[in-house]
Amino acid sequence: KELQLLIECLNWQMSPAEILGVEIKQLLGQCASVKTLVPRVIGLTSNAQTIKASTRGSFEHWTEETFVKKYFNMHGAAETEIIKKILDYLKPKISNFWFGKGSENGSIFPMIYKKHRHYPFALWTNGTIEMQFQHMKPFPPFDNLVLRKEFMTRLNAIKGVTLPEDKLDKRPSFSVKCLLEPESLEVFFETLDWYFGQLEGY
After folding, report:
1. pLDDT value at residue 25
2. What is Dmax (Cα atoms) for the chain?
3. Is the pTM of this model over 0.90?
């Protein structure tokens, strides 16, 4: 009973994690060779289930479709078209997209799997592109400060983008609005082409 109370208490207090126990009783028939196993889950109290359900309901499982829809509702057609072009550009170049689990703001991380896992930036439904210099720093080739600085310099050549040099080990961001002009979007893609080129062999 003490263990049961502990499990129920933990499951009630921990959210969104679930702590459950399984009790398996073995029943023997009149013939010793006949055995019946009867499992029982411990910890699924009504209060805990209510709390878990409300917590799970507050998080949205983002997909490309839900991300684009939310982005359109927040920022309109012009910016959403830029997001679609970025996603279409990335698809043949990356391993997969990782979608965030934020309850309010959705995010998309383009992932590249080589010897290490690389992701250069994240797209956010709040209208920003968040560069991931912090997560580039531990792995070659972008453990090299000179390469991260070159990456930032190329991005800062885009009109309206002013990433500060003291953020080369952090996650600075800029607005998707900076890519509305075709020339700016072209420079962004050229910069990403350079980035993917640096990953060759790593």
Report:
1. 82
2. 84
3. no
